[in-house]
Write a structure and sequence with these properties.
Elements (H helix, E strand, L loop, with lengths): L1 E5 L2 E5 L5 H8 L22 E4 L2 E4 L10 E3 L3 H15 L17 H8 L23 E3 L9 H9 L5 E3 L8 E3 L15 H5 L5 E3 L14 H18 L1 H16 L2 E7 L8 E7 L2 E6 L12 H5 L14 E4 L2 E4 L2 H19 L4 E4 L6 H15 L4 E2 L2 H4 L1 H10 L9 H6 L2 E5 L3 H4 L1 H13 L3 E5 L5 H5 L2 E3 L6 H14 L5 H7 E2 L1 H7 L5 H8 L3 H13 L3 E5 L1 H4 L4 H14 L9 E4 L6 H6 L6 E2 L3 E2 L3 H11 L11 H9 L5 E5 L3 H4 L3 H10 L2 E6 L11 E4 L8 E4 L4 E5 L12 H11 L9 H11 L16 E3 L24 E2 L18 E6 L15 H6 L5 E3 L1 H7 L5 E6 L4 E8 L7 E5 L15 E2 L4 E2 L5 E10 L22 H5 L9
Parallel strand pairs: 1-5, 15-16, 15-25, 17-18, 17-21, 18-19, 20-31, 21-22, 25-26, 26-27, 32-36, 33-35
Antiparallel strand pairs: 1-2, 3-4, 3-5, 6-9, 7-8, 10-11, 11-12, 13-14, 13-27, 23-24, 28-29, 29-30, 32-39, 33-36, 34-35, 34-39, 37-38
Bound molecules: iron/sulfur cluster (3 copies) and FE2/S2 (inorganic) cluster.
């Protein structure tokens, strides 16, 4: 530590700490408007000027040095600070009492108070531009914009969408979208970073406008009258009494605005934020430095919460009545569920019942579902949708390093020298995690290799983009591994110290020469060598992968090959290295971790281990089934075979998201008894005998576990909608009617039980997860967690990792004369998965109303297809009608369909082939025939969709250009 004198007081500081951080840490009150710790020094506002060595310097951009003497209160400093802030007020009209941003956290308001501004020295000048309301989620008011540039910095360098800029040379600079487009016609992806960091009301969420304040809903004319009144009296009475009134109004808001921390319910990144609400109205989502996301969100987490208050929410249990349903009381419905499950169990045994848990619901709910299956019904037939995506990645890691989770944190991915992304459209499927890669690549020289069939955003940004033939990733990964071994480029020391199985592995690589890989994968030998050498040369490598790898018949083996390559190159056990299978749903990691799997109890404890079973039997006071049950894929087969007769499923749209949905629907129809628990009447619930109305995440407490194994608490934002109940309560009701005696009154009690029975979570408790605190499993009894796994040993008895030999299984389907096109499928940024939640967001629907099929320009030319042409896709399993979108993201005879849709699920086209190790469907192995239909509709993507925008990349806000303006002078 060094010492720095600030206004005669001596402070300890870290060397090279920013002066502004030292001030904030030590309670030295210096104004700073453009500085935000997550954005760093932007240097546009000049309000933080202080004196060092007789010179005025910006405290945000000045680093401490030993013996430094700083004056924040000298007359030169104070006068400069005030002069800088006067310039800001020239750009901003203070009408706090009638402003929706007057919530105690407005930087401009608070700085006016800090500087005790009495009168406006530079008269406010509105800018000659209209307010822009063209984005459904936020609006920009140029006249209130103080040109701090925080939004530009956030868009350019945090989100790295590169939409925003300020043209400092303009006579009246303002924030520009795509250099001057309307927001709604720009490349803006509505991630909301800009709105989150704006220090005033220039950028605001539309849901705030007219709702946050007591007077802000007044008609415009009345508001303007009040603003004029205030302006009129300000010269006489000064700002002090005016601010006092606005502060009284802000304090009144506290009585009705609630801020509740929650965790996003969409993807597996695990963003957390405060939800601001007034009654059941969501005012806004405000990230407050979440451990995974900092200030970041994507459009879904920031804006797509309409579904919670959707009129489609179920508010009464439904019981089948002929072809339809009738409303029932909770008692009637639950009694019926218990009676039928009891009858079926008595007649056909416990294994004639299957249960499917939700990867959207909480850890505690997953735990209760598997406990219901095992302890109350007596079957291990319980699973969750990780079977559809992530089970192969987990298998690859179990085989090689021991734990089935990401080996480090998002922070490690940021620190890597080289990131390799395989089969993951990260910018759309894990948007906030992708921002960290985009940042590191743009600003810190991180290298990026992307392998994918589709040229998505990460592919466009990559230093090397590979387009291997479908299902051949294992081949090029193995060939690179062999090349490294053959050429002495493997990490010998690491292998000797930490890894078993080298010789068998070396032998397994024999077939994989670069030439073979080149032929099989369609990649040049030079490219393969380049990739191999980049991986060998990089000091820290992280590999990220997702469904483009796992949803093939060789998904587990390819995941294994990835981990093998990381071991071979010593890319485990250090920060900035490791394996990152990106988990899809918000709690798909947690649903598996907590035992909703047919072969393991919570914490991946095997059901056929007598010691494990004995521990659970003692706690639960029952005898447990001893052999693994059916996974969800096998359950569907078992229904067709007449072996599985009843199913209880919650929060899972199996009818849309399992492969070959015609086959799945056919099975569901055959069930003797089917219970679906959901917040909406889902497609799956159309087959149900009883539908139980559940509550979404905002209406309950619990925990989620994100892709980085991070366990986080969510708090109840709203009471459950009348008639609905949290899933954990419903499951408990069912269990008790089946004879269990559960008495959980709060999810924390369930977590206490989990921790007691599961070494992986021994130290997890709600107290340790209070607020924004989080834990990354494994968590020792004393609460020590492991953000980075394997720092001391791998998770095997001898502490060593295992190279696991694999061989290549060819894709199960190849184009032929009948089905001549390959159909790829996956996620889209703005819709989540099948879209049940996001299609209920009006704003999202307005930009992305439905699904489509992407067709390459070459194929479109050949077949006479244009944007909006209807085509019929037919596979061996079904057919769909869908509109075409012509794009060079796909090439040749590859098609791509987002998996979300209002009514045309891609899974009518996918088949029954699976990865044999995990039963994960090979969704990506689909071949289809395409018939061009005579109708031509509108383009499936309206022109307002961000994909038609034109970003304007630059290095940030580029304040130097402001300083070069002839009218700019450092304030004095
Ligand atoms: S992409 Fe749009 S919402 Fe996100 S920071 Fe940029 S301008 Fe703002
Ligand atoms: S819109 Fe951007 S530049 Fe304007 S005040 Fe807000 S953050 Fe600053
Ligand atoms: S969807 Fe994923 S990236 Fe987007 S806010 Fe939610 S957790 Fe974050
Ligand atoms: S806070 Fe330092 S220049 Fe704005």
């Amino acid at each position: 530590m060094i010492s720095v004198t600030v206004d005669e007081d001596i402070h300890e500081a870290a060397p090279h700490e920013r002066l502004i951080d030292l001030f904030n840490r030590s309670g030295v009150r210096v104004p700073h408007v453009c500085y935000h710790p997550r954005l760093g020094p932007i240097q546009t506002c000049d309000t933080c000027l202080v004196e060092v060595g007789g010179k005025l310097v910006r405290a945000c951009a000045t680093q401490t040095s030993d013996g430094m003497v700083v004056s924040t209160r000298s007359s030169a400093a104070k006068s400069a600070q005030r002069a800088a802030f006067d310039r800001i007020l020239g750009n901003h009209l203070l009408y706090c009492t009638v402003c929706d941003n007057n919530n105690g956290n407005c930087t401009v308001h608070n700085t006016t108070k800090l500087l005790a501004v009495e009168h406006q020295r530079i008269p406010f000048q509105p800018k000659p531009y209209a307010v822009d309301h063209t984005n459904p989620f936020y609006r920009y008011d140029p006249s209130q914009c103080i040109l701090c540039g925080r939004c530009v910095e956030a868009c350019q360098n945090v989100q790295v969408n590169e939409t925003l800029s300020i043209r400092w040379e303009d006579p009246h600079p303002r924030v520009l979208w795509d250099g001057g487009a309307k927001i709604g016609e720009s490349s803006c992806v509505s991630c909301g970073h800009c709105v989150t960091v704006c220090p005033c009301n220039a950028l605001m969420e539309t849901t705030m406008l007219g709702h946050a304040g007591f007077l802000t809903a007044l008609p415009k004319s009345a508001l303007e009258g009040m603003i004029d009144l205030v302006k009129g009296v300000e010269p006489e009475i000064g700002y002090r009494p005016i601010l006092r009134v606005s502060e009284a109004e802000a304090a009144m808001r506290e009585t009705r605005i609630r801020r509740t921390k929650t965790v996003c319910t969409y993807c597996g990144v695990g963003c957390s934020f405060d939800v601001w609400t007034k009654d059941r109205h969501i005012l806004k989502v405000e990230p407050a430095d979440g451990p995974a996301n900092g200030i970041s969100t994507c459009v879904k987490g920031k804006f797509a919460w309409d579904y919670v208050n959707s009129p489609d929410r179920l508010t009464a249990p439904l019981i089948r009545d002929g072809d339809g349903f009738r409303a029932a009381t909770w008692d009637e419905a639950l009694d019926l569920v218990a009676r039928r499950l009891t009858e079926i169990k008595a007649a056909s045994g416990p294994d004639s019942i299957g249960l499917i848990a939700s990867s959207k619901c909480t850890n505690e709910e997953s735990y209760l579902m598997q406990k219901l299956a095992r302890a109350a019904i007596g079957t291990n037939n319980v699973d969750n949708c990780s079977r559809y995506c992530q089970a192969p990645a987990t298998m690859g890691l179990f085989r090689t390093v021991g734990y089935g989770g990401d080996s480090g944190s998002i922070a490690d991915i940021e620190q890597a020298a080289l990131v390799v992304i395989i089969g993951s459209n990260t910018a759309e499927s894990h948007p906030v995690l992708a921002t960290r890669v985009k940042q590191a690549h743009k600003l810190r020289g991180q290298q990026l290799i992307v392998a994918d069939r589709r040229e998505h955003e990460m592919a466009r940004r990559a230093d090397v983009f590979l387009r291997p033939n479908p299902g051949t990733d294992l081949v090029w990964l193995s060939a690179i591994s062999r090349h490294l071994l053959d050429n002495g480029l493997a990490h010998t020391e690491f292998l000797q110290r930490w890894v078993n199985g080298l010789e068998a592995y070396r032998k397994s690589l024999e077939p994989f020469t670069l030439e073979v890989a080149s032929r099989v994968c369609g990649l040049s030998v030079e490219t393969l060598k380049q990739v191999a050498h980049m991986i060998a040369a990089a000091d820290r490598v992280c590999i990220l992968w997702a469904m483009g790898v796992t949803q093939h018949v060789n998904g587990s083996d390819t995941s294994t090959a990835i981990s093998n390559l990381l071991l071979l190159t010593g890319n485990y056990m250090r920060p900035g290295t490791g394996a990152y299978p990106l988990r899809g749903h918000n709690n798909v990691q947690g649903a598996s971790d907590h035992g909703s799997m047919p072969n393991v109890l919570p914490g991946y404890q095997s059901v056929d281990d007598p010691e494990v079973r004995a521990r659970f039997e003692a706690a639960w006071q029952v005898a447990l089934p001893t052999t693994p049950g059916l996974d969800n894929h096998e359950m569907v087969d078992a229904i067709h075979q007449g072996k599985l007769k009843a199913m209880y499923l919650f929060g899972e749209e199996i009818e849309d998201v399992d492969a070959n949905t015609n086959y799945v629907g056919g099975a569901l129809e055959k069930l003797d008894f089917f219970v679906v628990q959901d917040i909406f009447l889902s497609e799956t619930s159309r087959y149900a005998d009883v539908v139980l109305p559940a509550s979404p995440s905002l209406e309950k407490e619990g925990t989620f576990t994100s892709t980085e194994r991070r366990i986080q608490r969510l708090y109840r934002v709203f009471e459950p909608l009348e008639g609905s109940r949290p899933d954990w309560q419903i499951i408990q009701e069912v269990a008790n009617r089946l004879g269990a005696r559960w008495h959980y009154e709060h999810p924390s009690e369930i977590m206490r039980e989990i921790a007691a029975l599961t070494p992986l979570f021994a130290g997890v408790s709600y107290e340790r997860l209070e607020g924004y605190r989080s834990l990354q499993w494994p968590v020792a009894a004393d609460g020590t967690d492991e953000p980075l796994l394997y720092t001391e040993r791998f998770h095997f008895p001898d502490g060593k990792a295992r190279l696991f030999p694999v061989s290549w299984t060819e894709p199960s389907l190849r184009p032929d004369t009948e089905f001549d096109l390959r159909l790829n499928n996956g996620r889209l940024l703005e819709h989540f998965h099948e879209g049940n939640l996001t299609y209920r967001s009006e704003g999202i629907r307005s930009r992305t109303p439905d699904t489509f099929v992407e067709i390459s320009p070459e194929l479109a030319g050949e077949r006479g297809i244009q944007d909006g042409t209807w085509v019929q896709l037919t596979s061996r399993y079904g057919q769909v009608r869908v509109r075409a979108l012509i794009t060079d993201r796909v090439r040749g005879k590859d098609l791509y369909m987002p998996m979300n849709s209002t009514e045309r699920p891609v899974n009518r086209l996918t088949g029954n082939q699976t990865d044999p190790a995990t039963d994960t469907p090979a969704y990506k192995d689909a071949v289809v025939a395409m018939r061009v239909l005579p109708e031509i509709g509108e383009s499936p993507l309206p022109r307002v969709n961000h994909r038609f925008g034109h970003p304007t990349p630059q290095r940030g806000v580029e304040v130097e250009r402001k300083w070069q303006r002839p009218d700019y002078r450092l304030p004095e």
